[in-house]
Amino acid sequence: MSRFPDNPSRRPAVVTGASSGIGQAVARALAADGHPVVLGARRLEEMETTAAEIRAAGGVAHVVSLDLGDPDSPGAFAAEAASLLGEIEIVVSNAAMNQAGSMLTTEPDDFARTLEVNVQGNHRLLRAILPAMIERRRGDVVVVTSDVVARPRPSMIAYVASKWGLEGYVRTLQMELEGTGVRATVLRPGPTLTGMGMDWDPDETMAVLEEWQSWGLARHSNFMTPEGVAQGVLAVVSLPRGTHVTTIELHPEAPIMKGTS
């Protein structure tokens, strides 16, 4: 039985979609655990604020522009991240595009754009980073999908299709990485308090939520915090070599029921 070498205690990490929500919380959690991080997203000002907070707390953080809808951006991002931190040990692919819309209301160009960002953008990013991990025989890739894979929601047809495709991508990647020493994990969070969807039209949002409720897709009112989801990521990448979490699904805990007399 072969013994896996231990992971380094300090593992350079990149986090996409790090300007807010889950990505921002993951970057903070990794940095607090001693890992230098590169934050990637389009909104540079928000990331600079987060990076400054990480540095003030004694961590190492850099900001690099990343637009998964731009074919050239993922490769440039990966190259700059490596120049800043050295060999990348952890990739958290979290960035995603979401929009409300049914089959009848979603224009084909908008549908294609969602898949371009959520699936193709992820592919470009991993193609730029994983070869070095495979050569080194070590690394962790965590790809954030969504519980819409297990519980599809109406009026999110492009987003649901993209997350199903992304999860299929990671399932295939896991097989292709078998025996390389590189672990790939699907992180499938349920309802989480993030900025995603906050730019939807309020009336449209209410109509979508009512439709979800009619399908039994909102059992209770609680949402997870991004910080809670980030702890799930930290748990995955902190596991010792030789243990591989293929899928982790997180859901908000229901409100505690009041006691009855």
Write structural notes for this entry:
The protein has helices at residues 21-32, 44-56, 73-85, 108-136, 157-177, 202-214, 226-238; strands spanning 13-16, 37-41, 61-65, 90-93, 139-144, 182-189, 247-250. It has a single domain (13-250), classed as NAD(P)-binding Rossmann-like Domain (Rossmann fold, 3-Layer(aba) Sandwich), CATH 3.40.50.720. With 261 residues, the protein is α/β, with parallel strands linked by helices. It is built from seven helices and seven strands; from the N terminus they run E-H-E-H-E-H-E-H-E-H-E-H-H-E. A seven-stranded parallel sheet has the order 3-2-1-4-5-6-7, sandwiched between helices. The N and C termini lie far apart (58 Å). Helix 5 links the parallel strand 5 (139-144) and strand 6 (182-189).
CATH topology: Rossmann fold
Question: Assembly state here?
Answer: single chain
Helix content: 40-55%
The unreliable regions are: none
Beta content: 5-15%
Secondary-structure element pattern, one letter each? EHEHEHEHEHEHHE
**Total separate domains:** 1
Shape: globular
Number of helices: 7
Give the CATH architecture.
3-Layer(aba) Sandwich
Average residue pLDDT: 90
* Number of DSSP-assigned strands: 7
List the SSEs and their pairings:
Elements: E1 13-16, H1 21-32, E2 37-41, H2 44-56, E3 61-65, H3 73-85, E4 90-93, H4 108-136, E5 139-144, H5 157-177, E6 182-189, H6 202-214, H7 226-238, E7 247-250
Parallel strand pairs: 1-2, 1-4, 2-3, 4-5, 5-6, 6-7
Helix pairs in contact: 1-2, 1-7, 3-4, 4-5
